[in-house]
Amino acid sequence: MVELADEYMMGLALGEARIALDKGIFPVGAVLSAGNEILGRSHKTMLSNHLSHAEMNLFHQVFKGDYTFSRADDLTLYTTLEPCIMCFGTMLHLPITRLVFAMDDTYGGCAHTRLENAPPRHLSRSIEIVGGVRRLEACKLFADFLATTREEFWLTGGASHFRATVEAEITAHAMQG
Questions:
Q1: Is-catalytic flag, 167?
Q2: pTM exceeding 0.85
Q3: What is the pLDDT of residues 137-171, one digit of tens each?
Q4: DSSP string for 98-133
Q5: Among 55, 116, 137, 169, the one annotated catalytic
């Protein structure tokens, strides 16, 4: 049952990523849920802005004011790309207990960061992590972005690890099909 919910919610996150892609923005989308209830959804909103990540936009949307969510609410963050250190670190501060992402970020992803040397506050933060949900669909969005972007960072070879991962995934899929 969880797998079906993960597939569905990731579909919503992919929809958010498509909104960003249609604007020429790196296609990351995110959804936050409590069980089957959608609490919010967002996407990356600006070119080359280090603070306008889909997850951060979503966190600002959902966790504003005196929110009443707790870890007992079983909140799940769905995102099309493995979160960076900023988004992952922020997630540790929030009552999110589960992370589901589509594609590993070989350039800047931090979901697999080991926390055994973290400060005490974070050592007790157990987060279930599931990667690879609807990976190919996310990868295709990133490939479309890389093929059409006019962002200087990407045009000059920025994040070569990420580009190589996307190209390898697309090539492997083409060879299978």
A1: no
A2: yes
A3: 999 999 999 999 998 888 888 888 899 999 999 99
A4: EEEEEE--TTT--TT---TTS-HHHHT---EEEE-T
A5: 55
